[in-house]
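Re: duplicated header lines in exported structure tokens

Our pipeline writes sequence and tokens for each protein into one text file. With two proteins the header for the second block appears twice in some exports. Here is an export where it did not happen, for reference. First protein block:
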Amino acid sequence: MNSLPQEKQVTAISALAEGTSIRSVERMTGIHRDTIMRLSVRVGRACHRLLEESMHDLPCRDIQVDEIWGYIGKKERHVTIEEEAQGLGDVWTFISLDRETKLVPTFLVGKRDHPHAYCFLHDLTGRMKNRIQLSTDAMGAYLTAVEKTFGENVDYGQIVKTYGVDDTRDGQRKYSPANIVAVMRNPLVGNPDYGRISTSHVERQNLTMRMHVRRLTRLTNAFSKKLDNFKAAVALHFAYYNFVKVHSAIRTTPAIAAGVASRLWTVSDLVELAC
């Protein structure tokens, strides 16, 4: 891998960042898939360091939070106790998104439980330089985690969606989302703007993530076999999203919009971080 020309490395990482599968990259570039995987992990870890070091004192004012599901090796219902200890099973990525700049200040890969919700929000509060409005879904762990991390220094509200049950669906539609029959906005801490209690923007980011991280594509045979590889792929995605990809809504990168970066980055810049 160390002798792989940088041009080839950039081509491979660019394809992975745009949602191409490892085997497809192998066929297009002639690089062996094991080399591609090692390269992606190395660059992904460098991207994680970049995000850790650059996302501080952020001027964000309106943060939305959501979680996106994936799995390692096999889905949770098929995992034995021994396999669970090895990190196999369901995995969730907590995502935060600034409504105005579209920046993703922080994320966390783990389980959808109280400890991970707390760690995620604790990390988020340390990256803000001012009071924010925070919006989440109705996951029970969030309220306690917000109280322990932000205290009273936040305007926090939850959006609660009620889904209907459609027993008439045929097998072709069983994976479609249920119809939303009611939406409630609950102000919980501080004085949040009622009309801006929403998770719509971060949910749209979930779609972007599934399109750009091949192992998160639904209803396919794409998945991660190792947690480290999954974490590296997620870190690569958010570094690419924040620093490289021009967002169509703001016509620049989120990092530039938030004042984190002063120029447009390239995939070559991300690859050089891992050298």
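Second protein block, exported in the same file:
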Amino acid sequence: MRGGSASGAGVGALDERSVDSVFRDSWWPAVAAVAANVHDLELAEDAVQDACLAALNQWVEDGIPANPKAWLVGVARNKAIDRIRREALRPAKEAAAIEPSAAQPTQDALAMIDEQLALIFTCCHPSLELPTRVALTLRSVCGLSTAEIAAAFLVPEATMAKRLVRGKHKIRDAGISFRVPDPGVLQSRLNAVLKTIYLIFTAGHLAPSGQRLVRDDLCDSAIRLAREMYHMLPDEAEVEGLLALLLLTDARRPARTAVDEQMVLLEDQDRQLWDASKITDGLSLLNEALLRRRPGPYQLWAAITACHMEARTPAETDWREIVGLYDALLTYEGTDMVRANRAVAVAMLDGPAVGLSILDSLRTNPQMENWPQLHIARAELLRRVGRTSDAAHAYRHALTLESSLAVKSHIKRRLAGVQPGDTSSGRDGGVAQLWS
């Protein structure tokens, strides 16, 4: 289990991978079930953690039970009740925790889905700051340890621990309920959940710092979350769109780094290495979503990604279609980040000078000016129009900004390759940097 590794003492003859898989699959429903009864996220996590430790001791003697998830839920609920009694917490909380329904270790599938949905909607409540939402989701829903979350975002473990505690206390003190939002506000709250999952994935797909280009654990956690959301809300087009987007994007993972761990741009990737099953699943989900006639930004992002994945070669990429999809996306997300991505597509369609003018217009936004990908894309376009000195300056500026060592290594290679009068794209340097 992420919060308490199954590799500890007491596992004995048990298959450690099987136990870890059981804990990982059971964490979300177990925390959700306990939180639904005790209305305290911190207590629920502690109780499930204790249940996992108890399992390590008991299962080594008895083996993994036929229904390990129900076993963990039942034990965790009992441990939560014991702790409430032991610490003499509010009588009302004890009464709620020992209702007859809470004493039952099993529950029907619909009730379990409601509890799991309630937990993720609670962790992603709009009143919580976005970094706190991401951290709470990784901890309470995905089961990552505080140390793992801190490492993912390159902050001290103590800092992340305080952030998690503040988030849990805000949920408790603000009286945020552990339930699925009413239909009237479900859609607005769902957007916060989907954005949180998307941010977890993007933090893994292009790590903002650290040594690696990709954080596999974050990508895998986000895809797992999106899959679970799809199973629980199968009729939501944007949930389908998000899962399609993550699968299509992640299909490129095997080709995004070379043997020496150097970053490989999209147009230079060996497309034979792309994960065909993820592409097939992603395209199928996207088609399902589009047939619902309820368009949204994640479906459009997925459609843009699909244009790349369906092209057999970079030259066959339908840039006109991509520009049109970005135009539609701007009606949902009128952000400079979207405009920057659209500018690169425009450059591929109408020429580098046109795309460069759009990118230059975005530099008045301080957030964009501090985004290394903007300057890398500008450098590529500057080189293509023959402004090699300006291109070198853009690369140097990108090196001063926060990014992973893999991205910095790529920038240094591109900077070293800038030659006066060079306007070719070259096999190693496509402008499609924003699609790595």
